[in-house]
C-alpha cells in the first residue's frame, strides 16, 4: 500500500517533488486570485453591512486565508517519510480536493433563501472556514494534499478526532449546499464525501505504516470524524 521514499533515486524524487509542489501552488494561486476577485465584488455589492453580510464577508476572508496557507505550507512542508503508492490515492486526493471547487460553477444558486436558511448557511460557512484555518495552522508543515506521512500530529484539534480538517471543510460545504440545494447538488456532494472518506482511509494506512505503534495507540483513543460515534 505504501512505498518508502528511500527506495527512489534522490534526484528523481526531488524532481517529482518540486514538480508536484509547483503544480499545487500554481493551481491554488489561480483559485486564490479568483476568490479575491469574488471577495472584492461581494464587498462592492454589499450596501448595508448587517450581521449576515458581515458573516459572509468574514467567511470569504477566512477562505482566502485558508487557501493562502495551503500555498505557503505546500512550499515549506517537510519531506514525507512515506507516501501511498499507485495512482488510486493520488486520483482520490485530487478529486476530493477539487470536485466541489469545480462542480459549484455548474450548480445554479437557489432563489431567495428564508431567514433561517440564510443564517444557517452563513454560520456553517463561517464556522467551517474559520476553524479550517485554525486546524491547518496547527497542522503546519505536516500538511499534505496527497496521502503522505510527514509528522504525526496528535494534539490540539487532533486530540479530539483524527481528521478535523476534513470535518471543518464538510461543515463549510454543508453551508454552501443550503444555497444550491437540489438533486444534482446532492449527488455531487455525496460523491465528494465518498472521495473524502477514502482519502481518510488512505492517509490512515500511510500513517499506520510510518508510525506503527504511535498511530495505532492514537487511533484507539480518538474517533475518525465524529467524537463518540465514528
Structure report:
With 230 residues, the chain is mainly α. The protein has one domain (2-221): Four Helix Bundle (Hemerythrin (Met), subunit A) (Up-down Bundle), CATH 1.20.120. Helix content is 69%, strand content 3%. The protein has a 3-stranded antiparallel β-sheet with strand order 1-2-3, covered by helices on one side. α1 runs antiparallel to α2, α2 (51-76) packs parallel to α4 and α4 (115-139) packs antiparallel against α5. The longest helix has 36 residues, at 10-45. It is globular, with a radius of gyration of 19 Å.
Brief characterization of the structure:
It contains 7 helices and 3 strands.
Strand count: 3
- Figure out the total of helices: 7
- The average pLDDT score comes to 87
CATH architecture: Up-down Bundle
Shape: globular
Note the topology.
Elements: E1 2-4, H1 10-45, H2 51-76, E2 82-84, H3 87-103, H4 115-139, E3 148-149, H5 164-180, H6 183-210, H7 212-221
Antiparallel strand pairs: 1-2, 2-3
Key structural traits:
230 residues, mainly alpha, Four Helix Bundle (Hemerythrin (Met), subunit A), three-stranded antiparallel β-sheet, 7 helices, disordered N terminus
Amino acid at each position: 500500500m505504501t512505498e518508502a521514499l528511500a527506495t527512489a533515486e534522490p534526484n528523481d524524487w526531488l524532481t517529482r517533488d518540486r514538480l508536484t509542489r509547483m503544480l499545487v501552488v500554481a493551481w491554488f494561486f489561480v483559485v486564490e486570485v479568483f476568490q479575491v476577485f469574488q471577495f472584492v465584488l461581494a464587498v462592492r455589492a454589499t450596501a448595508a453591512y448587517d450581521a449576515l453580510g458581515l458573516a459572509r464577508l468574514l467567511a470569504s476572508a477566512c477562505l482566502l486565508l485558508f487557501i493562502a496557507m495551503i500555498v505557503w505550507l505546500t512550499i515549506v512542508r517537510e519531506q514525507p517519510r512515506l507516501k501511498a503508492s499507485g495512482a488510486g490515492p493520488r486520483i482520490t486526493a485530487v478529486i476530493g480536493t477539487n470536485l466541489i471547487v469545480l462542480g459549484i460553477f455548474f450548480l445554479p444558486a437557489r432563489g431567495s433563501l428564508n431567514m433561517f436558511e440564510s443564517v444557517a448557511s452563513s454560520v456553517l460557512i463561517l464556522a467551517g472556514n474559520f476553524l479550517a484555518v485554525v486546524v491547518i495552522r496547527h497542522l503546519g508543515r505536516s500538511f499534505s494534499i496527497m496521502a503522505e506521512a510527514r509528522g504525526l500530529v496528535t494534539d490540539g484539534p487532533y486530540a479530539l478526532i483524527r481528521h478535523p480538517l476534513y470535518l471543518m471543510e464538510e461543515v463549510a460545504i454543508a453551508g454552501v449546499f443550503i444555497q444550491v440545494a437540489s438533486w444534482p447538488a446532492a449527488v455531487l456532494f455525496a460523491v465528494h464525501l465518498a472521495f473524502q472518506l477514502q482519502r481518510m482511509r488512505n492517509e490512515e494506512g500511510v500513517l499506520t505504516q510510518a508510525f506503527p505503534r504511535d498511530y495505532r495507540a492514537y487511533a484507539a483513543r480518538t474517533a475518525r470524524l465524529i467524537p463518540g460515534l465514528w
